[in-house]
Design brief:
Length: 265
Amino acid sequence: ADCLMAIASNNLQQQWQGWFATDADLDLTATLIKVWIDSLQAQWGIDVAQDIVPWVTGDYALAILHPMTPATSYQGNALALDWVFVTQRSPATAAALERLDQLARRQGLSIGTLQIDEQPVSTWTALATNPARQQASSSSLTLDVNVKGAHATVGDYELVASSIDAIHQALQAPTTNSLFTSDRFQTTISPLPTPNSGYVYLDWVAADNLLESQFPILKFVKFAGSALFSHLQSVAVSSYQGTTKASSRPARKGEVFIHLGDSKS
């Protein structure tokens, strides 16, 4: 599946403050991150600021793959996204995952383990009987299994995902189609200066429909700038550490690179 957006960075707590700064509503990255946060909190019934942010202390990466199927895509007013989150393990990781297990149990979910390509994967699942199937199969009891989330430990990293398909893609990435080694991603980030504090990558072609749903005004912007948007392929944003002259408060700095290609029409 296409990757709509990817973030590779560190120091999540500092970036979290930036995403929720008073001027962040004008920031495309911050707005898309908030869409993911709303999706995660609606899907799992957690508080990301309390249950995720504190234990992510090292490098991390987030990939938003695509919205889920129409039958499961909306939880209240939040759009449900398929995603993978990868972070370096720390001394706090095991306790944090145990807390997520406890929260899942309180919501009536089951904690289980399965094997994907010989990799143990822990799952949070909802089990329910299926009356239609049960009638078709006389007295035998049938169950529907809805996986709400999954996580796996791979070396020094923890992978957390919204679905079995998402975590399967992440486990296969090192030997198949890793975004971070793809030609489009490397072409998009290569002009950005290094060292930096990480990247935000947006596949404009794949994310077009999602962006329009979150930014209705984008339809008019695309019409006015059709010469640009018809060739727009991807966008990369890189952030840099800095301080203001008046104080030691971190100043948000960044550079943007826009990758143009053949017309999409």
